[in-house]
Design goal:
Layout lengths: L5 E4 L6 E4 L7 H9 L4 H7 L13 E2 L4 E2 L4 H21 L3 H26 L7 H12 L7 H13 L18 H4 L9 H9 L2 H9 L6 H16 L13 H12 L1 H14 L7 H4 L8 H6 L7 H6 L8 H11 L1 H9 L4 H6 L5 H14 L1 H12 L1
């Protein structure tokens, strides 16, 4: 990959545009080539945010379960509902068991909110760009001590410089990357689990996550968390004043954010890219098979289709599953890139998913039952 692509501001939009080096195939050329293999009407369909309309239901059988994707409002309500309900569980039934259960479910809710915030970074929540940031800054990003704008600035570099030294998450010798990347270690011959443990015990990465972007937006984040503290105070049964602070909620939320959710963050980042060759997007990115319980907890809202996300980042998470099924069926290069990531014993030994064999069988069945429809679709798109 070229490390010399330069981000500049477009005069017509606030989206970054680029100047490309001709030294080798850049990230942007790879994206253009991949997009050219997908019919335009499908791109238009997939890349349209499902947005605010009430409770959409999209389902397709994967061989493991009925897959569904809810609307944006229901996802936000569900994730915050899980967090608040878990807090109430511990408040009214305090014990070691309820504490552990609360931490577990709060982490699940935080993962969901984090993935929705990630969608807002790509402006995939709703069609209007302005409303993406308003929704994110009201319900999502401040929970992790950042804002939509600040998170977008950091995450855009990860996409545009994927696998290069300028990648802030997975760049060799980059000060903000995972530990093994930051120290310039090549781990292509190690198991993912050993890499995960190496990166987990890293105070610098933990500290970066702990403070987030608070120093860049202290006033806004202080106001946001003050409001949250007051609102959650009404859920505290022991409050004796008209205005009290939700101390239990604040403790459980941030304790979870700094412990279990951080562990899951490192694990997810390791699974997504670590141990792979940074020669191209297809080589350097994994998707995780759907849909067992472990995957649903680790990667809610279809965050498991990470390879597809890097190839077509404009697709909202609510449509990734649908797009993934079509691409596996119709694009050999995409299908091969997905299956090859789990070819070694180390990979299989670490990330065994009970659903994988069922999913593979489902894909085979899908090929046989939809071959006529697929051929007609390809012919119509080529006219």
């Amino acid at each position: 990959m070229s490390q010399t692509a330069i981000l500049v501001q477009s005069k017509q939009t606030d989206e970054p545009s680029i100047k490309l080096s001709q030294e080798d195939i850049s990230i942007f050329h790879q994206l253009k080539c991949f997009r050219s293999q997908v019919p335009k009407h499908l791109l238009l369909k997939w890349e349209t945010p499902s947005g605010m309309p009430t409770f959409r239901y999209l389902s397709s059988y994967t061989g493991c379960s009925m897959h569904h994707a809810d609307s944006l409002p229901s996802n936000i309500v569900r994730d915050w509902g899980i967090i608040l309900a878990s807090t109430q569980l511990y408040i009214y039934y305090p014990s070691t068991v309820s504490f552990v259960a609360a931490i577990f479910f709060i982490s699940w809710g935080q993962r969901g909110l984090s993935n929705l915030a990630h969608d807002s970074v790509h402006r995939n929540l709703v069609a209007k760009k302005k409303w993406n940031d308003i929704i994110a800054d009201t319900f999502l990003t401040p929970a992790f001590l950042t804002t939509a704008k600040l998170q977008r600035e950091a995450h855009t570099a990860h996409h545009h410089y994927l696998g290069t030294a300028a990648d802030p998450d997975h760049g060799l010798n980059n000060e903000t990357s995972l530990k093994h990347y930051r120290e310039g270690k090549v781990v292509t011959n190690q198991s993912i689990f050993s890499v995960f443990l190496y990166d987990l015990f890293d105070f610098q990465l933990w500290y970066q996550g702990a403070i987030g972007s608070f120093t860049s937006a202290p006033f806004f984040l202080t106001i946001w968390w003050t409001i949250v503290a007051i609102l959650t105070g009404f859920l505290e049964p022991s409050r004796t004043t008209p205005i009290s602070i939700g101390t239990t909620f604040l403790f459980l939320f941030h304790f979870t954010r700094l412990t279990l959710s951080h562990i899951i963050y490192v694990l997810r980042e390791t699974i997504d890219h670590s141990g792979l060759s940074p020669s191209s997007i297809l080589d350097f990115t994994r998707s995780s098979p759907c849909c067992n319980i472990f995957q649903k907890f680790l990667q809610p809202h279809d965050d498991n289709y990470h390879l597809l996300h890097h190839l077509l980042p404009r697709i909202p998470m609510t449509r990734l599953h649908e797009a993934h099924l079509w691409l596996v069926e119709n694009l050999e290069v995409y299908r091969d890139a997905n299956t090859s990531k789990y070819s070694s014993e180390n990979e299989r030994g670490f990330y065994i998913l009970a659903c994988r064999e069922d999913a593979n069988r489902a894909f085979k069945d899908l090929r046989h039952t939809s071959v006529a429809r697929t051929h007609s679709l390809v012919k119509s798109s080529s006219r």
